Amino acid sequence: MVRTLTDGRSTGAFFARIGRYGLRAGTALLLMLAQQTAFALKLDVKVEGLSGARESNVLALLDIYRERGDADLTPARVLALHRMAPDQIADALAPFGLYRVQVEDALKEPSDAGGTWLATYRVNPGDPIKIGSVDYQVEGEGAEDPAFPKTFPMKIGDVLLHSDYEKAKSDLRYNATSAGFLDYQMVRHQVLIDPVAYSAHIHVHLQTGPKYRIGHVSFRQDLLDEDFLQKYVTFKSGDVYDPDDLIGLQSRLLGSEYYSDVEIIPHTGEAGPDHEVPIEVVAKRNKANKYRVGLGFATDIGPRLSLDYRRRYIGRHGHKLRAELSLAPALSTIELDYRIPIQDPTRDYIIIKPSSSRYDTDTRKGWTHGVQAAHSTLTEHGWRRNIGLDYSYEDFDLDSASLGVTNELVPSVSWSKTVSDDPINTNRGYRIKYALLGAVEGVVSETSYLSGQIQFKWIRRFTRDYRFITRTNLGATWAENLDDLPASRRFYAGGDSSIRGWGFEALGPNDPKTNETVGGRYLAVGSLELERRIKGPWSAAVFTDFGNAFDPDYEQEFAQSAGVGVRWASPIGQVRLDVAFALTKDDDSGGLPPARLHLVIGPDL
């Protein structure tokens, strides 16, 4: 039986007509797709009436703006995005308290197939909504706890900014956990908008629950003595439970390099009626040994091979060992550094440091051997203070004269501090060190003297492309005469980190008989440098260095150099290549002052 529609036509005839219409529509669609393939759609979007953060937020959330460059954009998609744009603009402005936003939208089609569509939105943001009432309540055991503000940070009459509202809630959550209220609940937190009165009503209710405290801290590991590990715990049982304290403990243990992984597990389910939470620290031991082989070059000492060995832990009480060998034509050293943590192991330790050095420079040749024992501690203000006692044995030839063998026992104290945004490639920072040392005749030493030194380096980037670097090195020694001082206690100048344009330790008082450098009892060296970024990590610099080592028993000479350099900010620090002209150096050629090439690789501070 043939079924009929309401107009009396047969079902078969109806579907036949649909087929013909479908064929025509399909043909038109194919032609339109082919035309779109031939001509990529161009779209320009303009938003007027906004600026600053409001404009940025609208553009970030406006789909028609974000998709304007898509290769597969179609006219149908443009129309759909244009219809959604006013609502998206209103939603993007709501976080700024703007709820009466008016948008005039216009979409202009191109006159030809390859033209540009233009979508324009003129926005009148209107006045921001203001807070009409604040319902803020803290209930429970912590209702009177000073961790929670007495009043909500947002006040009646303030503009409703959603960012301020979310920050206020986040601060409340943080205050709750840091004050030990781990079971807190924000039972109500909402903002209601009254569109008629055009005012906002804030409701924030927080239920604190009980206050938790830290219980016993135990360690699950197989490396170090637990009594020693307890020194890393800066809080005690019964203190208010603060997650930041646990994060700090984890950070200190990882920073010690004893462990490769540290997990802090608070057993809140075992708190009991006193609400003290047992803390378990699960730590996985790190690899014991670390090796490093390095190749480098510095103009002062030539090519250098360095071997570095570190033992991260020795025994059950966290002792550490470091051995370093550096081989270079002008200066070779071997040094052991044995450290024993004491008191606060993150700040205090005993250093025992045997060392040997071989010098083969223009001013001195020979060996020095020594051993240092020192107590090193980090003060509350960030100063590293070392108080130690050094024994040294020297056998040097100073230019053409032999100084023979020297033994001395030298007490010393030093303070040092480094502050920087990045110690490798620094934009803002400084390094400073004070040192005082001396010897007493008859106490192993053959002479008496007292020596002090100040070293300072300061770096500041004052625009995007410019950096200013200055450094100074000042020293003074009180002794009867220069001959009373061993070669290693005399001051010299010249070299990569002193006065460029001269060789390593080539400057200082000269012996009038041999005209060779013998060092001095005083030192005053300074440097000024301006660096400009060229492109990417590359920079250029101009500089001047000045000063010298001096001694009142010898003729005083002032030295100065100037030069230019190229810098590359590598991942391991600045690579600095300088050409320095020794402005005060005698030269009979009558041309440019003598020049010297300096190459240094290493961190800024």
From TrEMBL:
Question: According to its UniProt record, where is this protein located?
Answer: Cell outer membrane
Q: Which UniProt keywords apply?
A: Cell outer membrane, Membrane, Signal, Transmembrane, Transmembrane beta strand
InterPro entries referenced in this protein's UniProt entry, alphabetically: Bac_surfAg_D15, BamA/TamA_POTRA, D15-like, TamA_POTRA_Dom_1
Keyword field contains Transmembrane: yes
Spell out the PANTHER family in the cross-references: SORTING AND ASSEMBLY MACHINERY SAMM50 PROTEIN FAMILY MEMBER (PTHR12815), TRANSLOCATION AND ASSEMBLY MODULE SUBUNIT TAMA (PTHR12815:SF47)
Family statement: Belongs to the TamA family.
- Put simply, this protein is called Translocation and assembly module subunit TamA
What is the source species? Thiorhodococcus fuscus
